[in-house]
């Protein structure tokens, strides 16, 4: 999966109103970032690296597994496949979106 296809998949899941009510960034290191602005209406998804309420450090492969439903966010966190910094409540709400 490429960064662009992951961005498109997240954009489709987020829609106009994700209910996230915050900003969240998937930081995939050298592969790039995906930022969900769930505080704006309509919600937006971009690859612009900005400060967010919550940052999820994850590999592109693990993000793909999460989008495919093969990796639950809570399971990924417990297994160390993703790291959360910032507002943990935002990360918990992410499970409803993804």
Automatic annotation (TrEMBL):
One of the Pfam families matching this protein, by short name: SCP2
Entries under InterPro entries matching the protein: SCP2_sterol-bd_dom (IPR003033), SCP2_sterol-bd_dom_sf (IPR036527)
Domain SCP2: 20-97
TM helices/strands, residue ranges: none
Gene3D superfamilies to which the protein is assigned, alphabetical: SCP2 sterol-binding domain
The name this protein goes by in its record: SCP2 sterol-binding domain-containing protein
